[in-house]
């Protein structure tokens, strides 16, 4: 695993009332959320954030990011596929 290190002015830590460890966690989560929002990482961004995927996905709204960014066409397609899977006796992988 690679490591990225950068300096934070003490004034920032004081202003945010955070320890270096707490701020590092917050920065990792914020970076992961932004990369997810930009489409550069999938929900696997949780690994960058250092949190479980359900936690990551459930906290995207805290940053104003949609959990799922589907177009109306994609949503309709997914709904139709799901309905087909419900009526078929075999496994669907659409």
Beta-strand residue fraction: under 5%
Helix-strand string = HHHHH
State the helix count. Answer: 5
Give the beta-strand count. 0
What's the rounded overall pLDDT mean? 84
- The unreliable regions are none
Gyration radius, to the nearest Å? 19 Å
Structural class of the secondary elements? mainly alpha
> Shape from CA axes?
elongated
Terminal residue distance:
34 Å
Q: Helix coverage percent of residues?
A: 55-70%
Main sheet overview: none
Describe this structure in words.
By secondary structure, the chain is mainly alpha-helical. The chain has a domain at 10-68. 55% of the residues lie in helices and 0% in strands. The chain contains 5 helices and no strands. The protein has helices at residues 10-16, 20-37, 45-49, 53-58, 72-87. The chain starts with 9 loop residues before the first helix and ends in a 7-residue tail after the last helix.
What attributes does this structure have?
mainly alpha; 94 residues
Question: What order do the helices and strands come in, and which of them pair?
Answer:
Blueprint: H1 10-16, H2 20-37, H3 45-49, H4 53-58, H5 72-87
Brief account:
This protein has 5 helices and no strands. It is mainly α.
